[in-house]
Design brief:
The protein has no helices and 16 strands. It is mainly beta. It folds into two domains: 3-88, Phage P22 tailspike-like, N-terminal domain (Tailspike Protein, Chain, Beta Complex), CATH 2.170.14; 95-163, Jelly Rolls. A five-stranded mixed β-sheet has the order 9-11-15-16-13, with no helix packed on it.
């Protein structure tokens, strides 16, 4: 599962260029010049172009997993921002809306906190499991959301995910 880069939903702009309409975003492994995939959806089914061109509003709705170096350029190819170690892993308290009829499982990120919500009315449960071997959820191997709209906040402390 990938996490949305929320800051890209706001208009990307600089004092010099204003809105960076048709500017580009290039995503690398943190601290390197090795391209790293980004996606058009949280389930990582559609990989986005990399570099990715900002739209007419100077925004982008993209998803990633892990740490990135993000380089933002204007339409002339001039670097306007270069930010390393930008994390996209659900560790920011992101809310994950899970439809059990199409995606009945959710794996928690490596750490931090995340809110998970069951969005559909099906009888299928959303089964949540830790992403790292040895971690538990309140001492259990998994946790299930069974009712539409059921929402739970998970926070990791040591090797236990707590429901808070």
């Amino acid at each position: 599962m990938a996490t949305q880069f929320d800051f890209l939903l706001s208009q990307v702009r600089t004092a010099i260029d204003g809105a960076l309409i048709n500017g580009t975003l290039t995503f690398y492994e943190a601290g390197t010049t090795t391209l790293k995939p980004v996606y058009l959806d949280q389930f990582k089914t559609t990989q986005a172009a990399n570099p990715y061109t900002l739209d007419a509003n100077s925004t982008a709705q993209l998803y990633g997993a892990g740490n990135y170096l993000i380089v933002i350029k204007n339409t002339n190819g001039t670097i306007r921002y270069s930010r390393d170690n930008i994390t996209a892993s659900g560790e920011d308290g992101s809310m994950i809306v899970q439809d059990a009829s199409t995606h009945p499982t959710y794996t928690l990120p490596d750490g931090g906190s995340v809110i998970v919500c069951k969005s559909d009315a099906s009888a299928t449960a959303v089964v949540i499991s830790p992403g790292v071997a040895g971690q538990t959820i309140n001492g259990l191997a998994t946790y299930s959301l069974t009712v539409q709209g059921e929402t739970v906040n998970f926070s990791l402390s040591n090797s236990t995910w707590y429901i808070t």
